Structures are given as structure tokens and as C-alpha cells.
Amino acid sequence: MPVHSAPTRSEPGVPARPVAEMSYNELNQIDLLLTLQQPIPGAPDALFFVAAHQITELWFKVIVHELDGARRAIDADALPEARRRLARVARGEEVLVSHLRAVGTITPGDFALLRAQLGTSSAYESAQFREIEFVSGRKDPRFLDGPRVTEAERVRLTARLAEPSLADALEALLDRRGRPDLARVIAGDADPELGALIEALIEHDEGFARWRHGHALMTERIIGYRDGTGGTGGVDYLRATVGERFFPQLWAARSAVYDS
What we know:
By secondary structure, the protein is mostly helical. Helix content is 63%, strand content 2%.
């Protein structure tokens, strides 16, 4: 019989150790993590600002991971597993929405000090944010042409553009189920398992829309109607994205419930 070694974790140049032998600090690489928040000269709120954005990126990473798992589960017709994954996505989005309230404690005066040091850096450049969009089904290749997209990010996002999205997985599932009447499914008159999945997808779509809306409000509170960093359109750009949906056909089908 094959012998399976214990899971290990290591850093470059450091011998691997079994995970079971690691302390909390070692397992979570706390010492390394706490070195990643560097001060910005002349900006007293730099620790808060940088840590807040790193926390957001960590949640983005978790959400991408769970969306990938949900897509694979749908492909395998394992709809309860897909719903479990999507529920975790929705809870993560709730955390992100709450997190915006903390970021919103930065005053316009405080941010003015930060802004002077940020140069052209902008949250618009978040590749993981685009990855969530691509994985969910909203694929806009124009982002790949941005001057600040790294080669590694371009490779990763190009692969995301080419692979099936969560929306594609849903369409394939509907094909396998004979293209059911979505209004009837949503109303609870047919295929309750599919209906539960649709509600989970809607919750993800709504959760991300709430984050978009909250992000726009937070930005308006901090910088008003000025352009954003990096030459972005600031609040006007963010407001224009609030109405975007990953699964527009599922929202449209909810209207059709009342016509049936």
C-alpha cells in the first residue's frame, strides 16, 4: 500500500514541517503577515488604509476559491454542494459590506494626506475583483489592456476569460434539465433542488451588488465627486456599475412569476 506523508507547509529556503506540528503562528504565517503593512510617509492612516485593502483582497481570494468550487459542483450535478459553496460566498460578501463601514471612518482630510502619497495607485487595478466578475459570468476583456496589469495577472485573467463561468455552468445545467420554465421553478412549482440553487446564485449576485453600492457610497463620503486615484472616474464610475448583474435572466424570471 502507498505511504502518504503528513501535510507540510514551508517557505522558500525553510525545511518543510508537518502541519500537525505547527503552532498557530507558524500555520498562519503571522510573522510574515504582519510585515506586509508598510508605513507611508506623511500619512498617519496608512496602516489602517493598507490593512483594510489587504483584508478585502483576502476575502476576494476566498470568494474566488468558493465560486470555483460552486461551478465544479454544478458541472457535477452536485447542487447541495454548490449551494454550500455559494452560501459561504454570500457570507463573505456580507463581511465585505460591513468592512466598508470601517473604511468609511477615514475622513476627507485624512484621505487627502493619503491621496498625496498614493500616486496613480487605484483599487480599480484589483485583478481579483475582475476575477470574481469573470468567474461569475461578467467578462469584460478591456481590463486586460490596462497599463498597470502585470503579466502574471494578464495570464491569469486571460485564462479566466477562456474558461466556462458560473453563468455558463448554470446554462449547461438548464440544458441537462430540459430548459425548465424558470418562472415556475422560482415560484416553487417545479424542481425544488434547482430552485434552491437559483436562490443561492441570486444571493451571490445581490451580495456583490450590495458591495458595489456600499463602495460607491463610501467613496462619495470620503472624496465627494472628485476623480478617483489613478485617473478613474471616482463616484460616477462606481455608480454606473451598481446596476450590473451576473445572472440577469434569473432576475427577469422573477418578474415573469407574476405573469404566469
